[in-house]
Amino acid sequence: MSDRERSTLYELMGGAETVQRIVDAFYPKVQQHPLLAPLFPSDIEPVIEKQYLFLSQFFGGPTLYSDAHGHPMMRARHMAFPITKDRADAWLGCMAEALAEVGLPPDLRDFLLERLKGSAYHFINTSEEE
């Protein structure tokens, strides 16, 4: 198997620099979204840092999140927040905009979003009626 065939998604998308650009493009959209903004603290910097660490690891890069915070246990970490399907969809919409903004090719954007959908929908813990 060649090195090219062993490339991780993290490497294919551009590594640390691209992940940081995605996170930097993503959070202003989240902060402006009426369904998402109330879930986030006014000091968003720690959230941005954790998202960078997590996405780096999630896409096959270094285990930055686990090294700093232990096992991700992302569903458990999100249980304190009322996450509905509409909020999961909104989160994915903001991420789609961020991926486009940083200039990722459409096929790679679609693949990344498909990979993130599983997590986004796994975090749903509240019905729309609540």
Automatic annotation (TrEMBL):
Which keywords accompany this UniProt record? Heme, Iron, Metal-binding, Transport
Lineage: superkingdom: Bacteria
Q: Does the keyword Nucleus apply?
A: no
- The answer, when asked if Phosphoprotein is one of the entry's keywords, is no
Pfam families (alphabetical): Bac_globin
Q: Which PANTHER family match?
A: TWO-ON-TWO HEMOGLOBIN-3
Please report which protein family the annotation says this sequence is part of. Belongs to the truncated hemoglobin family. Group II subfamily.
> What protein name is recorded for this chain?
Group 2 truncated hemoglobin YjbI
Species of provenance = Paenibacillus marchantiophytorum
Highest lineage ranks of the organism? Answer: Bacteria, Bacillati, Bacillota, Bacilli, Bacillales
